[in-house]
Amino acid sequence: MLKSLLKRFAYACTLLGIISIIAFYLGKLVPGDEILDYLSIDESGYSSRSNPLEQRTAYSRVAEKRGLNLPYFYFSIRPGFYPDSLYSIVPVEDRNTIMAWVQTTHNHPGAMQLYRDCIQSLHLSCTKADTSAVADKICLSVSSVINAKDLFTAHHQLIRLQQDISQLNADQSFTAQVQKLNEDLDILVKSPKKLTSLEWLPSFDWHGTSNQYHKWITGFLSFKPLTSLIDGRNAWTKIIDALKWTLLLNGFAFVLAIVLGILIGLWSGTHDGTWMERLINIKLFALFALPSFWLATLLIYFFSSGEWLSVFPSGGLGSYNATNNLFEKSGILISHLFLPVLCLALGSLAYVSRQMKQSVMHQFRQPYVLSLRTQGISEKTILRKHVFRNALFPMITMIGGALPALLSGSLIIEVIFSIPGMGRLMYNSLLARDWPVVFPILMFAATITVFAYILTDVIYKWADPRTKTMES
Fold this sequence. Notes:
- The protein is an all-alpha fold.
- The chain is about 70% helix and about 0% strand.
- The chain is built from 21 helices and two strands.
- A two-stranded antiparallel sheet has the order 1-2.
């Protein structure tokens, strides 16, 4: 038993590791610049800065603070003619520009030399941009050159800049800067490098634990604070706040569906074929066939809108915080959660009762039931002491499969009834592109799903001695 459990745990950890890598790279593939998303939070004055050097400095500070200037993974594979430090270059647009230059010329030393001289020119000119018109022009023009992925466009911009500053009688240091950039660009454009056979091959780089994925996964495992891009709150705080409402909503619905489903399944299994049993099955499957959003809309229309009745609130959680009385607070929450709980429970009731009915009927066909009957034991005793217990074994798997949904939330119901649970949080975060909240929820749901099935398997083997015998 212990060996089997350890084996399943190892499989689970391996599977979760693969899921985490996929989730991490999905986060890197989404459109936009991750560092720019954090700038509005970490550097409040970023948007008001007109100086390109100040913007780059702010961008670099955020990248270093968030560890976004590190390589993605423990190792990387790149084309052999790319610079080995390409991952560390920020902003990301600079990295893309260098890649374009290298792809055009295959001369990464020349491309890096031009880039370093451009950055040096920015530092020399942008610091004097407020007091010198020439410095301001050089600052803006060199920034445009860095963003020009086409080398001929960059060359044209530098030639025009050189002509402009010559007419303005610029200081010799400024003239030398621009002249140096023109020389670098001339060398890069006119001297494309022929690649050797080794440079055509991919290059493997090992980065160790100093990488973004390691920082991300260890932060997830240690619940390190993550900043929401919407309001700057800790993402884990938002997830935990949403989780309690999801547990409350889905927990009540889960218990209601299981209890009623088992009772109806027991009754249906012992009254199979009667007109009442058929009528109940038709009604249950009609509810099961209704889409959850439509069933929720019908419940609101009939019980909340006032068109028929106005018994229950149509959504939200009400002003339960306005009172300290436990009974009043519970009454407010129950009235607001009644319809969404009912909607979730009705949708699952047909499935649970059907599974229980089939399990009960299967048990009644077993030889041990016939043996008990020949001994004169009553049907009620057989059902209560033998059939019921054995019929519950298949339900264990179903209950374990429902656990992930219990914790991850019901998106449609939570959105329709305005319940601030995990499903609604995931929905709002996706709309707002709040990835620091989205991906922890994704990993949380994946972890719960994997370990729920392991727990189900363990409970099943513990409850059914026949499984232990077969395994041994």
